[in-house]
Fold this protein.
Amino acid sequence: MADRYQRLTARGPGAFVARQLGLPRPEPLERHRPGRPVTAGPVALGGAEGGRVRKPLRAVLDGLGATVTEDGTEEGTGDRPAALVFDATGITDSGRLRELHAYLHPRVRSLAPCGRLVVLGTPPEQAGGVAEAAAQRALEGFTRSAGKELRRGSTAHLLLVGHGAEQALESTVRFVLSARSAYVSGQTLRVTGPAAPDAGPADWERPLDGRVAVVTGASRGIGAVVAQTLARDGAHVVCLDVPQQGAALRGVAQRCAGSALELDVTAADAGAVLAGHLRERHGGVDVVVHNAGVTRDKTLGRMDAGRWDAVMAVNLTSVERLTEALLDGDEPVLRGGGRVVCTSSISGIAGNAGQTNYAASKAGLIGLVQALAPRVAARGVTVNAVAPGFIETQMTAAVPLFLREAGRRMNSLAQGGQPVDVAEAVAYFASPGSSAVSGQVLRVCGQSLLGA
Ligand code: NAD
């Protein structure tokens, strides 16, 4: 799945020239394969004095069957750590940030290729005072910078664990430590809700067993892979796309042993049709992935109202309407414990010339996620968004060559992402184990320089 430049610089004369010129040599990233362990090697675990997540974290790591070494015991084992994990929740002032440095400084260069550096902290607004809040906020700058320094496909993650959420870490730890998060780096994830009593799936390889999911825009690109990934995780997937994409849509539905629904999400009755279909055929739905999206790029002065309206209708208004229809009534079609995942974009965070319409629609989705999440929390429903960066699909294949090449390289991993990278992030949000994660926007962008 490597791009041409990546193949050229991987070995032989191409690698030599790239090295001499100081050009990036993108590492082929490890992706998840069913049955593969969460971590490919030992995990080095450390923490500041008084940290509150180290113990539950150790229990999660032991449950995963990981080889864990604590505080220097890894020396002499010969194996490079696949992950360096540091519990920084005990850090209460800026002086004590030194403990983070002291632990990671001697170890960071021994991290194995495609390794993980994971820091756990407290959401600054939950800190005990100003000094602690400042120190905890410092962790974000640290992690973002570490992500930019790491080489050979390794990534950095900050997990902010709310008070009372210490037992709700497993799905997030599994995601960030594993190859499922290959194209996520320099990001902060908040685990702040308590874990639902039945949170952990019986089988982490098939967390969606017995559940029903719907994916819009599923006939190709990211949506097709999201559908296949949720089916891999056990869901029956209702694959939805416009009638013009009918043949491709039926192909995807067949490949994931799901069903196809031809529907234009902008149709006036789309909400009612979808809600009726899901209730009649499946008695409801558990996971809703709003993935359908379009671009109609032009600078603002050249953008006619048609381009503006087309983008807004598909990317934002349809999401509002469909979600409303699925949440409506005393017995909503979206069942308790349900999951809503929107597909935003780093354009919605950073802005992009020629995309005032697209970026506005994608930023609007972030507003929707943040406003809706607390309103549906009482039913155990979570609402999150993925914000892809440059992902190799037909949408980005249409971008002019120079811009396409810039988009691919301007990130810490110096390569474009694959649709499966977005799909794995969606699957993480969709998991019943992720009940404590809501209102989040996760960039899947290899730590793109845009909006970083
Ligand atoms: P794509 O164009 O390959 O697929 C989009 C799908 O949405 C198509 O199958 C299309 O038929 C469907 N769709 C469009 N209008 C629809 C409508 N009215 N009703 C139902 N279905 C409709 O795009 P992609 O690259 O796979 O992108 C998927 C999502 O990810 C989009 O929301 C996009 O904005 C977002 N995204 C993509 C990238 C990237 O780099 N590819 C980056 C950021 C965000």
User: Anything to note?
Assistant: The CA atoms of residues 169 and 191 lie 7 Å apart. The mean pLDDT is 93. The pocket of nicotinamide-adenine-dinucleotide is lined by residues 216-217, 219-223, 241-242, 245, 264-266, 291-294, 314, 343, 345, 388, 390-391, 393-396 (CB under 6 Å).
